[in-house]
Design brief:
mainly alpha, three-stranded antiparallel beta sheet
Length: 189
């Protein structure tokens, strides 16, 4: 590449000329937009009401606020269900370590650990979570989620019934008991 060496004075003149052109361009652009703003302000007597109407219409309605609150509550109940299932799983393993078998029911587990039913019952229905012992060394545990939350449902087992007594169907597209509109989060060991 051929590089031309300009004398020092010409480089300075070119640099000053470039700066002046940029400054003129910025001033021209700014003055042109400033004139548009001035025209809009002078021709619009209703500018302030229009702005306040736009602000008011961008505010969520009471229905939107209630829907967002309902969504948050639903997500909270699902998070509690997943946390409860994790806690129950730990208690099941502790019970197994002490008795060399899993308990016949969650009620036995709760009695053994002197816990209240709130940790083994669904927060909405107050019904016990789904649990089946299959033999002394296997169990299937589940909870119905209200939201098809991929974060939870990708890490569960999706196991079908493990024994004749097991009524839990761990498919994610329905509840553990087959209910439509719910999503089964299950663990099987």
């Amino acid at each position: 590449m051929d590089q031309t060496n300009f004398p020092k004075g010409i480089k300075t003149i070119l640099l000053v000329l470039l700066i002046v052109l940029v400054a003129v361009g910025i001033f021209y652009f700014w003055s042109k937009n400033d004139n548009k703003v001035s025209q809009n302000v002078s021709t619009s007597d209703n500018l302030l009401p229009e702005v306040s109407n736009n602000i008011a219409t961008n505010q969520p309605s009471a229905e939107q606020v209630l829907n967002a609150l309902d969504d948050a509550r639903t997500k909270g109940r699902d998070a509690k269900r997943v946390a409860d299932i994790a806690s129950i799983r730990v208690m099941l393993e502790l019970y197994y370590d002490d008795h060399n078998s899993y308990p016949e029911s969650l009620q036995v587990l709760l009695t053994n650990f002197k816990l209240e039913n709130k940790s083994s019952n669904d927060p909405s229905t107050n019904q016990p979570y789904f649990y089946t012992r299959c033999g002394t060394e296997n169990y299937h545990l589940g909870a119905n989620l209200e939201i098809n939350n991929i974060n939870y449902l990708q890490v569960d087992n999706d196991k079908g019934p493990m024994c004749s007594a097991d009524k839990i169907d761990g498919a994610d597209n329905k509840g553990c008991d087959g209910a439509n509109g719910l999503f089964c989060y299950d663990l099987a060991f």
